[in-house]
Each structure stands twice: as structure tokens, then as C-alpha cells.
Target: 2Fe-2S iron-sulfur cluster-binding protein
Amino acid sequence: AKITYVEPDGSRSVLDVPVGVTVMDAAVEEGIGGIVGQCGGRMVCATCHVFVEEVEGESPPEPDDDEDEMLDYTAVERRPESRLSCQLTVGDGLGALVVRLPESQT
Ligand code: FES
Model:
């Protein structure tokens, strides 16, 4: 799926992320600085916070209770469209996703 990461200054990086890979892992691998992913996806750091702006195709599943709880600990206050990008795994039906990165992760 085509994942677009929008930095706070508006600059964009577009990655082609394979099915089964998370939006966090792909960003960390590419050195996209706006996502830290300190805990490696174990859902204990909340430094992979993103705001989902656009979804093309099948939406990723809604946050589960653990993610919802962890979203209360993000550096920049959560919004309705907040997600932990380590919990956004690219699925077969997802065409494209645009995520905005918060001003700060820590
Ligand atoms: Fe730590 Fe997502 S990488 S909560």
C-alpha cells in the first residue's frame, strides 16, 4: 500500500509498504524522523503516534482497548483520528493511507 507520511512542516514522504508490515516499522526503517517507535511495537511507548487523514480501500481495524488506553499517553494530545502506527498493519485491502505526524513524540 502507498503510505504517505506528512511531517508537521507539510513535507511528505511516500513509501510503498508491503502487506503485513506496520506503518511504524516502515517509517523507522526509512528514517522518517517524525515516528520514533521506541518500544518496537510492544505498545508501551506511544512514540509512534500519528493522525490518520485519509484511507483508500479497506480501513484498518479500529483501535483495541490497549491501544485506546495507550493513546492517552501521547506527547501531543490525541484526537479522534489518532492511532499508534505500530498497530496499523498494512492489510490486503488497503490501497493507500495518509498519516500526519505530530509535532513531537516525546
Ligand atoms: Fe511503542 Fe507503538 S512503537 S507504542
Residues 2 and 16 are 5 Å apart (CA to CA). The beta strands are 2-6, 12-16, 49-57, 82-84, 94-100. The helical segments are 23-30, 65-70.
